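User: Can you predict the 3D structure for this chain?
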Amino acid sequence: MKLDFSKSVVLRGLASTFIKGFGAIFNYLLTFLIAMKFGAEGNGIFALFMSIVVICSSILYFGFDTFLVREFSTYDEGFKKKQNALYSFVFIRFFSNLLFLSILVSLTAFAFGKQLYGIISFSIFLNIFIDINAAVLRGIKQAEWYSYFTQMGKNLTLLILMLFFSFDTENTSIILWLYLLGLLINAILIFRIVRSKTGYPISRELMLEFNFKIRDVFLSTKDFWLSSTLVFSMLWVDFIVIDFFLGKTESGIYSVALKLANLVTFAFMAFNAFLAPKISEEFNQGNLRGLQKLISLNFIAVFPMLLIPFLLILLFPTTLLSFFGEEFVDGKMILILLATAQFINGILGPVSIILQMTGYQRVFQRVLTWVFFLKLIAIMLLVKEFGLFGVAVATFSSIVLWTVIGSYLVRRKLKIYSRYNNLI
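Assistant: Here is the predicted structure, written as structure tokens:
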């Protein structure tokens, strides 16, 4: 039993890591392809576009992306009918209204000759559709599919489309059109997979039977919504500030440095895909001993995969950046700072998931709120004086601050450690 538990954690985590690893490779190939065709400015434009899509998506998730993981983590016959009703509610009430809003914004944008806003609007809708369906897959412990759609599928599809379509290298908007097409392909695919894995029909009658009310559901998701919005905004607001104060070339350099720094935690994040529903399950069963064991096993499996890429970045930052072009070498110190922040984030453990899956999402939300506003103040003060390095310092400080505070809160509230502790 003990061996089976350990093997389950490690094997499922490794499967997610494998998928996320390929996702990272495709992401860097995509970044390289854009850099070769459009240079740092092209990467900057795409990074700004993605910042807008991700931040707006995180706001419009309304917390469903985290709430559904918790609600679907108990996946058995006793809960299946209610879960089916909840999924129907999300589809009928949430997706349909969001699609109507997206169409309205897009038609208005195209009517006034602002096609970029139309692309952004549809991209936001499709991105939300994919990620919320992925949350259902994560909740029912289909971590491999969750990892594919959130970490690999979008970039892989765009990479394939870019390789198969020849286009004018001076027209950067083609990247955005191809990204939109890729999202549509992934949205169709994930909908079919969720239906296949759950067997859930979209049932208005079932939704009405459980009498889900929009107000009640949003009251349940609002703390998750605020937390996820703050997390995404904290990570992506950098590009908006850089584009406004510095320019698209600097945004492109920062984008490449950030993607390389994220190599440090790619295994950590991949294991988290499997970890979240298991944390919720162990906590709901009152098994804090099992929860600590789960977290400790996760740390043992992930630590080598945190350390190796971190050391590679510390030893060869210039070599890694020069792969994308000589203009990216200026991001050397930015890369080292961001990689160090990710390493600290990884070794302190999955604090955000632990707090949100154990009912302390409101406490976590307060921490993020304070840290977010402190980061905004820091980034505005530092960007004018120190440029990209100032932005990186603000980001480093915010990541370390909320991770350290979160780790302390896990210990204080749950009496367990967010990192390795005795497995016995």
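The mean pLDDT is 82. Residues 72 and 343 are 31 Å apart (CA to CA).
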